[in-house]
Write a structure and sequence with these properties.
mainly beta, five-stranded antiparallel sheet
């Protein structure tokens, strides 16, 4: 898929998110980007990998909501 040199790491490799992949198609209006390794990354940090595996969003626990008086 990727013509970049050096080529993109495989989607399952640990270095894939660290530095090796880059966006080849951005769709911010729809909330997703296609990476050079075929992974679709969503704005909520979820992913859909080329093999069909879904990666759940990495969400931080929320604190209490502020209430306006």
């Amino acid at each position: 898929m990727c013509t970049r040199r050096p080529s993109c790491p495989a989607a399952a490799s640990p270095e894939a998110r660290a530095e090796g992949t880059h966006v080849v198609a951005a769709h911010p209006e729809q909330g997703w980007n296609l990476l050079c390794d075929g992974t679709i990354v969503f704005d909520d940090t979820g992913e859909l990998r080329p093999d069909g595996q879904a990666v759940a969003p990495r969400r931080l626990p929320g604190g209490p909501l502020a209430v306006a008086a």
